[in-house]
Amino acid sequence: MSAPSTARSDHWQWGFLAALVVATLAGVSFMRQREPELERQPIKDFILSERGGTMVSKSRLAGRVWGASFFFIRCTESCPRLVEAMARLHADLAGSDVRLVSYSADPAHDSVDKLKVFAASQQADADRWWFLTGAKDQVRALAEKSFLVSLIEDVSLPIGQHVTHSNRLFVVDREGQILGDGVEVVKRDTPDGPFRIDERALRRVLLRALDEERGWPIQLAELPLLNASLNGTAASLLLVGWVFIRAGWRRAHGTTMALAVATSAVFLASYLYYHHVVGDTKFEGPQAWRTFYLILLASHVILAIVTVPLVLLTVWKAVRRQWDGHRRLARWTLPIWFYVSVTGIFVYLLLYRIFDV
Question: Which residues pair with 129 in a beta bridge?
C-alpha cells in the first residue's frame, strides 16, 4: 500500500509546482507592459550642414538607429530642457551605436559656426551627436512632411520665443523610418509654469532606441515586470518548499528549493543587466509615499546583499549533507530570502504601476 500512496503524493507535489508555474505565467501575461507596435513613417531625404560644415544626408545615417529633435540656440522657452534631455541621452547611449541629431528650428540665425560653439558647450561628441542647419524652407519641409510637426515663426514675438516647434524626441530605425509620432519629453505642469523634463517619457525614448538597436525579442521595458515575476515565483517556491519539508517530503523540498535558487539567480542577472543599461528609476510618487518607498527599498537592498552568502552557505550545507548546520542556517535564510522576494514585488508596483505617471 505504501508505493501507491507515495506515487499519489509525488503526483500531488508535482501538480502543485505545475499549477504554480501556470499561475505565474498567467500573471505575467496579464500585467505585461510591452510597447504597442508603432507605425513607421519614412523620412524624406535631406541634405543639411553639420556644425563642422560637413554635408549630412539621410543616407549618411542609413543602417543606424538615431534620435532626433528640433531646437534653436536663442530659445528661452522649452529648448534648454529639450537640449538637456538630449544631453542625458547622449551620456546614457555612450556604449551603443545610436546617434543623435538636433535640427535647428531657426536656421537663419543658427549658422554652422554658431552650432559648433553651442555643441562644444554641451560637450557633444562630433561622431555621436550632430547639429544640423540649412535653408529655412528645407528645414520646415523636413519637419512638416517627415516628422509631421510644425515650425512656426512669429517675428512679432521676442527673440527666444519667436519660433514654435515640437518638444518631442523621435527615434528613427535603421531603414530611416520614424517610430510612432515621437515622445513629448518636455512639458509644463501649468500653462504659465516652467518647462520640465518628463522623466518617464525620457526613459521611454531611451528604451525605445536601445530596443530598436538590439532587436531582441524581450524589450528592456519588460524587464522590470520579468524581475518582479521572478521575485514572486521565488517567494512562492520558498513557501511551497517550507510546506514540503514540514510535511516530511524531503525530495520535493530539495527540488523546490533548487528551483528557488535558480529563479533568484536568473532574477539577479536580469536585474543587474537592466540597471547597467538603463540606470536607476526615479520614484515619482508623493512625498509621504516616497518616505515609505525609500525605507522599503533600503531594507530590500540591504537584506538582498545579506541573502546571497546565506543562500550559498545553506545550499552548501545541504550538498555536504550537514543537516544540522543546514537547518540552523535555513531558519534565518528562509524568512530573509522570502522578505527580499516579496518586497521586490512591492518595489516594482510602487515604481512602475501605482505611481508610473
Answer: 100
pLDDT of residue 22: 58
Alpha carbon of 307 to those of 1, 29, 341: distances in Å?
42, 29, 10
Q: Where does residue 278 rank: exposed (0-12), middle (13-18), buried (19+ CB within 10 A)?
A: middle
pLDDT tens-digit map of 177-222: 999 889 999 999 888 889 999 988 898 899 999 999 988 777 888 8
SS3 of residue 146 by DSSP? coil
State the Cα–Cα distance between residues 158 and 169, nearest whole angstrom.
25
In this structure, what C-alpha cell is assigned to residue 174?
535603421
Q: Evaluate whether 172 touches 68 at the Cβ level (below 8 Å).
A: yes
Written as one string, the DSSP assignment of 98-135 is: -EEEEEES-TTT--HHHHHHHHHHTT--TTTEEEEE--
The number of angstroms, rounded, from the C-alpha of 252 to the middle of its chain's C-alpha atoms is: 37
CB atoms within 10 A of CB 1: 5
Query: 133 has which bridge partners?
Result: 49
The three-state secondary structure class of 50 is strand
What are 87's three cell numbers? Answer: 544631453
Cell for 92?
546614457
Please state, in angstroms and rounded to a whole number, the distance separating the CA atoms of residues 107 and 130.
Answer: 15
Runs of H (alpha helix) within 248-286: 250-278
What is the model's pTM?
0.75
Crossing angle, helix 287-319 and helix 250-278, to 10 degrees? Answer: 130
- Under a CB-based contact definition with an 8 Å cutoff, are residues 205 and 171 in contact? yes
Pairing of strands 99-104, 129-133: parallel
- Contact between 43 and 177 under an 8 Å Cβ cutoff? The reply is yes
Tell me the average pLDDT across 126-135. Answer: 94
Q: How far is CA 186 from each of CA 70, 86, 110, 202, 225, rounded to the nearest angstrom?
A: 12, 11, 22, 9, 26
